[in-house]
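User: Please fill in residues for this 328-position structure.
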């Protein structure tokens, strides 16, 4: 992770100074990094004496972020044309307006600042951006902005930023030998009051019993491809109807399947409707799953990406395996 330049910090400081009100929003189907980076940005905006509204199209499927759902709205606070001219839009953990989901209100045509760390991220025309693919989480970038503008991070902000960093790094499992700066930043959060053990418990505990039953089905359904280097599994609509969508634990599924000897990548597909699927891709080391996700309109990181696509599982699996065969 690279440290921010004075110019990058000054750019965001100026963005805050030039607006009176802010909408803060992340991508649809938010995860811990998305939600906690938005919350920490709100605390930074508040510390600068400005007002804001937290937005999310949801849904809040992950059990570890249910506690934060009530702080967000899917309806943009009404503002007059004059007020909109003095309003800024901050987008965190996402660089595409289409990934914000269905919000009641129009976030476009607002002066925008984007904070993202995904490999497939790009800066839209007319927006100001802080995009750093070397950062392990959006929370890492927000921490550096917070420290550069407000000084020492507050205990409340430190807890949020450590939580978000922990979720996106698999509680630091995904970090490599070039991550010393990430650990130094994490240490500053702990010094400010973040509790690693409590954070781990918040992330990993409290899962509904039904998620364990569904996890067993996903493991039983898993199939190997490409000489055992790729594992694919899936969730049917009937599975969702029977076991529910609350507290899904795909992270445990990926961890278990990636631990299989010889496996380099895992694909998890979910039939959302009769005509559409979502998919998650995880990999080890050198397999770039973002390249495969991009073929289906998705994106993300080298070792963790996703997609949302029209189609059915039975036809998507052969197409996805074919794309993996090109890179494995």
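Assistant: Residues filled in for all 328 positions:
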């Amino acid at each position: 992770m690279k440290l921010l330049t004075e110019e990058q910090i000054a750019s965001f400081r100026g963005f805050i100074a030039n607006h009176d009100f802010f909408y803060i929003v992340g991508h649809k189907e938010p995860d811990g990094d998305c939600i906690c980076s938005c919350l920490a940005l709100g605390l930074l905006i508040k510390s600068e004496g400005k007002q804001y509204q937290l937005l999310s199209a949801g849904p809040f499927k992950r059990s570890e972020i249910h506690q934060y759902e009530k702080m967000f709205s899917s309806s943009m606070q009404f503002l007059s044309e004059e007020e909109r001219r003095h309003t800024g839009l901050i987008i965190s953990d996402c660089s595409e307006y289409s990934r914000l989901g269905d919000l009641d209100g129009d976030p476009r045509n607002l002066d925008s600042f984007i904070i993202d760390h995904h490999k497939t991220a790009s800066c839209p025309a007319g927006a100001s951006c802080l995009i750093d693919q070397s950062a392990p989480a959006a929370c890492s970038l927000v921490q550096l902005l917070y420290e550069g503008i407000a000084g020492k991070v507050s205990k409340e902000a430190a807890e949020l930023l450590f939580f978000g960093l922990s979720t996106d790094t698999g509680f630091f499992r995904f970090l490599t030998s070039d991550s010393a700066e990430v650990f130094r930043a994490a240490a500053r959060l702990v010094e400010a009051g973040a509790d690693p053990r409590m954070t781990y418990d918040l992330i990993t505990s409290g899962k509904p019993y039904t998620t364990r039953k569904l996890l067993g089905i996903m493991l039983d359904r898993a199939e190997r491809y490409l000489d055992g280097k790729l594992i694919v599994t899936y969730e049917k609509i009937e599975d969702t109807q029977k076991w529910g969508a609350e507290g899904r634990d795909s992270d445990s599924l990926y961890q278990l399947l990636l631990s299989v000897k010889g496996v380099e990548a895992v694909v998890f597909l979910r039939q959302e409707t009769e005509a559409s699927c979502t998919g998650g891709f995880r990999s080890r080391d050198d397999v770039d799953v973002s390249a495969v996700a991009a073929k289906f309109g998705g994106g993300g990181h080298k070792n963790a990406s996703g997609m949302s696509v029209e189609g059915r599982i039975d036809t998507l699996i052969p197409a996805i395996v074919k794309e993996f065969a090109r890179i494995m």
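For context: The CA atoms of residues 152 and 192 lie 8 Å apart.
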